[in-house]
Amino acid sequence: MLDLKFIRENPEAVKRAIEVKGVNLDLDELLRIDRELVALKQQVEAMQTERNANAKLVPKASPDERPRLIQKGKELAEEIKAREPELRAHEDALKQLLLRVPNIPHPSVPVGKDDSENVELRREGQLPEFPFQPLDHVELLERQGWADPERVARVSGSRSYLLKGDAVMLEMAVLMFALDFLRGRGLTPLSTTALVRPETFVGSGHFPGGEDQVYKIEGDELMLAGTAEVPVNSLYAGEQLSSDQLPMAYAAISAAFRSEAGSAGRDVRGLIRVHEFRKVEQYVMTRADEAEALRWFEAILENAEAILRALELPYRVVQNCTGDMGAGKVLMYDIETWVPSEGLYRETHSCSYLGDWQARRTGLRYRDEHGKLVYAHTLNNTGIAAPRILVPLLENHQRADGTIRVPQALRPYLGGREVLGVPV
Ligand SMILES: Nc1ncnc2c1ncn2[C@@H]1O[C@H](COS(=O)(=O)NC(=O)[C@@H](N)CO)[C@@H](O)[C@H]1O
After folding, report:
1. Looking at the chain, which terminus has fewer C-beta neighbours within 10 angstroms, N or C?
2. Choosing from 171, 350, 352, 360, which is the catalytic residue?
3. From CA 118, how far away is CA 269, in angstroms rounded?
């Protein structure tokens, strides 16, 4: 959410953000409702002033004057009360529209309509050369008896997954490695629930708009979050933090649930796009200082890149264009990791800076050095998401005999083993 004062003073900048982000919002309607609400409030205030002035006259009035003044007071009270519903309706309509106003993209963000117009910034790591016909991750899992897609589909339908044996140890190893690594980079580990109240999705910016991505629970207000960003972003909602409590930087592991509504037919095979997965999420809350926040953006981006380098996975960094960054972002880079079987880089991390847009929706404020209450700035990036990361991990590190070479960084989490699986 943007500051209403900013919107009033910069309608053109906000209209441009609406346009380049492809947001469905009529800013003129918002500004009209805002003006009507200001006028309504002024009318009600004028009536209250008149009513207060009138009430002061009653005790001093003569006996034959008093009934008329009391009657006038009653009429004014009625008129004020009659304005209430219209005032409330305008306030609600304005609030709903304000929640849809997108953030202003950083000047460096390329204008584009979808991910095809994202801009590649750099590539890292040598693409693998296989002196044999490489297998895709589904075949690798099947050959080692590390998966059972038919049975789990009977239990859980499509976009489910089940891992067996050393594939499980590998999944846990990458999650543990990411937590350890991020702790080593100064982030505080968290282990959070995915069960959250609806307002936390408003705070993060997933609502309004992303309702169909979220699993709801019959008869319960709680819903299942698709990322730890949602609960962690609301941990301090409504509090008045002190400046020295910031920056806060967390590495939050949680389950993540996504309906993937709208992804029908995409990535239906294997581990790329499933309904429930686990993620270690980097979440940062900083003071309202863009330069400091952008340093944190670089830091959490570098953390993710360092994790991929440690996993010895080739990747590239792309800058998301305006049409592929979502309403709340100021700046967004995706990290895409090489998937040999597709001959493509596939998104495995998403790094975002949101300014105070989330904080204003969530009520995340701190007292600055002048004692003024200021909205914080928030950022997030994936640390690691499993099982998606297993796709490039298995495929890039497969050996001719179908076994998997364990990157050096993961060996301490796998009992020192250098290879997983048996020759098949
Ligand atoms: N349906 C899914 N199945 C498996 N992994 C997924 C799925 N959806 C997202 N992910 C993984 O989670 C990562 C982050 O998801 S995201 O929506 O892009 N971004 C976020 O959730 C942010 N909070 C940063 O993590 C993705 O890059 C991907 O690696």
Report:
1. C
2. 350
3. 25
Look at the pTM and tell me if it is higher than 0.90. yes
Q: What percentage of residues in the chain have a pLDDT greater than 90? A: 100
Burial of 316 (0-12, 13-18, 19+ CB in 10 A): middle
Complex ipTM > 0.90: yes
Per-residue pLDDT of 286-339, as tens digits, reads 999 999 999 999 999 999 999 999 999 999 999 999 999 999 999 999 999 999
pLDDT (average), residues 350-364? 98
3-state secondary structure string, 296-361?
Answer: HHHHHHHHHHHHHHHCCCCEEEEECCHHHCCCCCCEEEEEEEEECCCCEEEEEEEEEECCCHHHHH
Note whether 341 and 134 are within 8 A (CB): yes
Distance, CA of 235 to CA of 238 (rounded, Å): 9
Residues 385 and 256: beta-carbon distance below 8 Å: yes
Whether 292 is in the pocket of ligand 1, judged by its Cβ within 6 Å, is no
Contact criterion met (CB below 8 Å) for 37 and 90: yes
Q: Structure tokens of 347?
A: 């998104």
The model's confidence at residue 142, banded by pLDDT at 50, 70 and 90, is: very high
Residue whose CA is at the smallest distance from ligand 1 atom 10: 385
Residue with CA closest to ligand 1 atom 6: 273
- Please tell me if the CB atom of residue 380 comes closer than 6 angstroms to any atom of ligand 1: yes
Show the beta-strand stretches assigned E in 18-101.
Answer: none
Catalytic residue among 258, 278, 360, 361: 258
Q: How many CB atoms lie within 10 A of CB 291?
A: 6
Measured between alpha carbons, how far is residue 133 from residues 98, 300, 375, 419 in Å? 54, 36, 55, 19
Q: How confident is the model at residue 190 (pLDDT cuts 50, 70, 90)?
A: very high
Chain centroid offset of residue 164 CA: 31
Does residue 298 have an active-site annotation? no
pLDDT in tens, 51-105: 999 999 999 999 999 999 999 999 999 999 999 999 999 999 999 999 999 999 9
Bridge partner list, 46: none
35 is catalytic: no
At residue 377, the pLDDT reads 98
Say which of 204, 234, 388, 395 is annotated catalytic.
388
